[in-house]
Amino acid sequence: MPMKGSGTSELREIDRWEDGVGWIAYPDEEMQRASHAFVGDDGGVWVVDPVDADGLDELLAEFGDVAGVVVMLDRHKRDSAAIANRHDVSVYVPDWMTGVASELNAPVERFGRQLADTGYRAITVRDSSVPPWQEVGLYHEASGTLVVAESVGAAEYFLAPGESLGVHPMLRLFPPERALGDLEPERLFVGHGEGVTSDATSALRDALDGSRSRSVSLYGKTLKMFVAG
């Protein structure tokens, strides 16, 4: 199983809800790179950290016209420029995120505490040099929808035994409690793996609360996978 898929995609839909949808372009890859699109309060479709796939434009068209593409993590440029250019829209990057806009071959717009008129609040999840990590979260409080790019995820390598949602292995000892701990999402979508569509607040709090105590079991599991592979 490759870490990242390439070549011909096989789009698998995940995380569909009334105002959006998610997909994994290469379902067999180990990283399980997940992308999402949601309808904002402005009526436009906003595409988040996208990996392109055959049939994607038809999937997005079910929800309306694309209004923008969003980069939520400095290393999640993915196919954002290609999709933005195809839909004649801009790529939106947090106003504090560095080293991203110059690498995008597409129009770029910056956003601050709110993502345009979508109703989604921008949360600084992490902005650090050690490890190098710039990540924004998007939270629509009225609908209880939270999107997190990387700090928590549901791909296998995020998860200690018994977990359905886990903190990233590199952040296990320093989980994003200050940024995410007070939120009460009804649904939570992540950049790796399928999201949590019921009892998301409990899943998030369990992931944060158990991050440190379950770190040894996660690292042990990862070592066994590495040796077996």
TrEMBL record:
Organism: Halogranum gelatinilyticum
Protein name: Glyoxylase, beta-lactamase superfamily II
InterPro entries for this protein: RibonucZ/Hydroxyglut_hydro (IPR036866)
